[in-house]
Design brief:
It is found in: Cell membrane. By secondary structure, the chain is of the alpha+beta class. The protein has 13 helices and 4 strands. It starts with 15 loop residues before the first helix and ends in a 5-residue tail after the last helix.
């Protein structure tokens, strides 16, 4: 049987400052990008609007498509090539056009189709898919996505507080919050469209990251129960090294699956594949270099008195000096004959 990274003794926690600087710099770059291009690239599922994917018989010019729409009164449309040179997406998210969705979700789509048929003749293109979302639905989906992320974090914190204790749960949830921030910075820098599929990818990333962190924390708890007289940092390093073979095999196989989606699944699912591929790396990074140092900081900030972890963190007290003192005192006593 092939054994990878067996019986390793890497000092992972030693490099936590470098890791913290790296992740802070990446998040800062992502936040700085908002100054250049404010806002996230939200899909019509959150902003409301109309999306049409078109496949033409002959490759058209984007300017011709835009001109046809503007002649029909559809202004502010975003026209992008989608895959091949014959496929385009038309996204209408102008506030005036979005307001029309409240009167009829398919009204704008019919207007776009009629305008293109006048310009390119009927039968010269095929409507592959149409998505039309009203403004009220977009607001509800936005609110629901935020609530889903917050509720999942709260439930995780409660579960870990009962499963381990609140210090472990707090470290795991803060580590997951780091994963979300880094992933949002990645989405911003890559200009990925945030759709319900991407939100599902973020929630999947949260579960994946927490699973890896829980496995390491569970090993930490087992090692603490063994009563080893060692600092908590050494216990964390041992737990990470003991779970390293399992982590490497799991992450590599999962990454290969998401890589296949990224390459072969097509444009619709590609943002989800990007988020998952990047998320696997972030989850691995945070479970080692974020969750562990956070647990150390929490233990230092709120010590647990005579708990197992603090006993392990204290240096052992040898009984040999007491024995020597006792024997010396016995020799000092006068002897009677």
């Amino acid at each position: 049987m092939l054994r990878i990274f067996h019986n390793t003794t890497f000092d992972f926690i030693r490099w936590w400052r470098w890791a913290a600087g790296l992740t802070a710099a990446f998040i800062a770059i992502g936040l700085a990008s908002f100054a250049v291009n404010p806002g996230l690239n939200r899909s019509i599922e959150f902003t409301g609007g109309t999306l049409m994917q078109l496949q033409f018989a002959q490759p058209p010019r984007a300017a011709d498509v835009r001109g046809a729409l503007e002649s029909a009164g559809v202004t502010g449309a975003e026209i992008q090539q989608f895959g091949s040179s014959r496929e385009y997406t038309v996204r209408v998210q102008d506030q005036r056009q979005v307001a029309l969705q409240a009167a009829g979700a398919e009204g704008v789509a019919r207007t776009i189709r009629a305008a293109l048929e006048r310009r390119f003749a009927p039968g010269s293109f095929t409507v592959v898919r149409t998505e039309a979302v009203g403004p009220r639905v977009g607001e509800e989906l936005t609110r629901g996505a935020i609530i889903a992320i917050l509720v999942s974090s709260l439930i995780t914190l409660i579960y870990l507080a009962f499963r381990f204790e609140w210090r472990f749960g707090l470290a795991a949830v803060l580590s997951s919050a780091h994963d979300v921030l880094v992933t949002l910075a990645f989405i911003k820098l890559m200009h990925l469209e945030i759709s319900l599929t991407v939100v599902a990818g973020i929630l999947t990333l949260l579960g994946y990251s927490l699973n890896d962190t829980i496995i390491i924390f569970d090993r930490v708890r087992e090692d603490l129960r063994k009563g080893r007289s060692e600092p908590l940092q050494a216990t964390l390093n041992r737990a990470i090294n003991e779970t390293l073979p399992r982590s490497v095999l799991t992450h590599v196989t999962t990454f290969l699956a998401t890589l296949a989606l990224l390459i072969f699944a097509g444009e619709v699912i590609r943002p989800f594949a990007w988020v998952m591929s990047f998320g696997i790396f972030v989850a691995t990074f945070s479970s080692i270099y974020v969750a562990g140092p956070l647990l150390l900081w929490i233990e230092h900030k709120w010590p647990r008195g005579n708990s197992a972890s603090n006993r392990a963190a204290r240096p052992p007290q040898s009984r040999e000096p007491r024995a020597r003192q006792g024997s010396a005192a016995a020799n000092a006593l006068p002897t009677t004959r």
